[in-house]
Specification:
Elements lengths: L9 E5 L2 H5 L7 E6 L8 H4 L5 E2 L13 E2 L1 E3 L2 E3 L4 H17 E11 L4 H12 L4 E8 L14 E8 L25 H6 L6 E3 L19 H11 L5 E4 L6 H8 L3 E6 L2 H10 L5 E5 L21 H4 L5
Parallel strand pairs: 1-12, 1-13, 2-7, 2-11, 8-10, 11-12
Antiparallel strand pairs: 3-4, 5-6, 7-9, 8-9
């Protein structure tokens, strides 16, 4: 599209999400959910990272190259993650900038990177802004005879302001009691509100919901997350949109959505899932940047931010 960033409607962008994020106005998004890929192949060529190449180092990291340690927050990490964390960091900084004052941020990772990712997000949002670790547990997929099979992933929930964020638990679906005989017939029939462990099957390989796109997220997970943490009319942003499940759930619940993916195949899948009459598809290169802050304005750092690592706008 030509012109400034769209102020209404549902939008899907093809291109580098960092380019798109730079064009999103401050505080214009109510909820950000991302499920980023792991160790993106060319991330180190697209962004500046904190990794320092050092051919004299004995520490070998990503793709066999020697690096000095990346320092994130207050701790040093294995060099194998330097490129990945460096790829994520500028995008997470932008995600925080575009969030509304009562906005929520969700980072969906698996066991390999969630611990590193949490320290990185703590350093951007502040440790005090961390609200929940949501575990999505399932019982399908690969088996292992050499270790406990991995049957979960993690969603880290942060609030832009931990004192003011949307959390409408009454809007959630209800789940069955594990021991219904212990609560009585009425309560067993009503079910209960979910906890921070969400039992939900993966997308069935033979079900109607399946698109064939890798790592497609179930609509049940996205519906619950958006129903509880946003309101009708709110704007939801997913800049690693993949198959577009975030957009489908947002549309069902009356939320506006902004999606982005760099893969044309993802865009093709989204075109089959999203209503063409209400969804606009664009190239990131054709969107003008968001207005710049007034001259002399600067981001303030709250007292004690060094311990928390957080940035206060």
């Amino acid at each position: 599209m030509n012109g400034s960033f769209p102020a209404a409607g549902n939008h899907v962008f093809l291109g580098d999400n960092l380019d798109l994020l730079a064009r999103v106005p401050d505080g214009s998004v109510n909820l950000v959910y991302i499920d980023p890929p792991f160790n993106t192949g060319h991330a180190q060529e697209r962004v500046n990272t904190h990794a320092v190449r050092d051919d004299t180092s004995a520490r070998v990291g990503f793709r066999g190259k020697a690096y000095r340690s990346l320092r994130v927050g207050q701790k040093a990490y294995d060099d194998a993650f330097d490129d990945y964390l460096g790829f994520l960091e500028p995008r997470l900084l932008e995600a925080r900038r575009v969030l509304a004052a009562d906005g929520a941020f969700f980072l969906h990772l698996d066991y390999r990177e969630v611990h590193y990712g949490k320290v990185l997000v703590d350093g951007i949002f502040g440790r005090g802004s961390f609200i929940n670790e949501i575990i999505w547990a399932y019982d399908y997929g690969a088996r292992s005879r050499s270790r406990w099979p991995t049957k979960h992933s993690t969603i880290l929930f942060y609030a832009r302001d931990p004192r003011a964020y949307t959390f409408d638990l009454d809007a959630s679906d209800r789940i069955a009691y594990m021991a219904p005989e212990m609560v009585g017939e009425d309560k067993a029939a009503r079910g209960k509100t979910p906890t921070d462990v969400w039992w939900h099957t993966i997308v069935s390989p033979t079900g109607r919901e399946k698109t064939g796109y890798p790592s497609q997220k179930p609509l049940g997970i996205m519906r619950r997350l958006l129903a509880v943490h946003s309101r009708p009319g709110d704007t939801v942003l997913d800049f690693f949109a993949g198959s577009g499940s975030t957009g489908v759930a947002a549309a069902e619940l009356g939320r506006r959505f902004i999606l982005c993916d760099s893969n044309p195949e993802a865009i093709a899948v989204m075109k089959t899932r999203l209503d063409a009459a209400t969804t606009h598809f664009h190239d990131c290169d054709h969107v003008q940047p968001a207005p710049k802050p007034a001259r002399g304005a600067q981001r303030a750092v709250a007292p004690g931010a060094g311990a928390d690592g957080g940035i206060v706008a």
